[in-house]
Design a protein that fits this description.
Layout (H helix, E strand, L loop, with lengths): L4 H8 L11 H4 L11 H6 L3 H10 L4 E4 L6 H9 L2 E6 L2 H13 L6 E5 L2 H4 L7 E3 L28 H42 L5
Parallel strand pairs: 1-2, 1-4, 2-3
């Protein structure tokens, strides 16, 4: 990335966040090729090695990244899944995610959706849902416990409610798969019946 590091830290990062500059390659190995993050992204992006491990463990046909941010997780899921639906409410952050996916050559496997996950969720169906909502920023590290039933910072829901929403999305995905398999089976049975009828109707001289 053709930018002087000192200038970048001084102009684009708050002074208290300068330490994250030292971690830039752990967040995006292609950082020097132009990876983009906003201030929140610097402390929110999952380190690439961890994101890759999560993607290897959770590979499936369709994965929803409910809070895509700058795209760190969505990119890695696109590596192991057939399709990724990346949902992000901030249009500038979503544009960064799409830009970063291009750097990794995986943008063609990701559907980028700009919107509130809670509004979009009823229309989604998938095999898996990845939830990495706002945890409270760097101050989260000073919490002794994490209560699933406490509202998340900046969100009107608890983690427990998010898990319930994600379960509904996966359930719809399973129902769609079952419906597709049943339709395929019915079509195959209908084709076999047609072949049998055609065979009975042939004349043998």
């Amino acid at each position: 990335m053709p930018v002087d590091s000192a200038v970048y830290v001084r102009k684009l990062l708050p002074r208290k966040m300068a330490k994250y500059w030292l971690q830039r390659y752990s967040l995006f190995s292609k950082f020097d090729q132009g990876a983009q993050m906003d201030v929140q992204g610097w402390y929110s992006v999952t380190p690439e090695v961890i994101a890759a491990h999560q993607a290897d463990l959770c590979c499936c046909d369709v994965m929803v990244d409910a809070f895509a941010g700058c795209g760190g997780n969505a990119i890695q899921f696109a590596r192991t899944c057939k399709q990724v639906i990346a949902v992000e409410i901030d249009p500038e952050r979503l544009a960064m995610a799409q830009h970063n996916a291009v750097l990794y050559g995986l943008d063609h496997k990701i559907e980028f959706v700009c919107g509130d996950f809670f509004d979009v969720a009823p229309r989604l169906a998938a095999d898996g849902v990845f939830l990495s909502p706002p945890w409270g920023g760097p101050l989260y590290q000073f919490s002794d416990t994490f209560d699933l039933h406490q509202p998340l910072e900046g969100l009107p829901v608890t983690m427990a409610q998010l898990l319930a929403i994600s379960h509904d999305i996966v359930l719809r995905g399973q129902q769609q798969q079952q419906g597709s398999k049943q339709q395929q089976q019915e079509e195959e049975e209908g084709h076999d019946q047609q072949q049998q009828q055609h065979g009975h109707g042939q004349r043998h001289d």
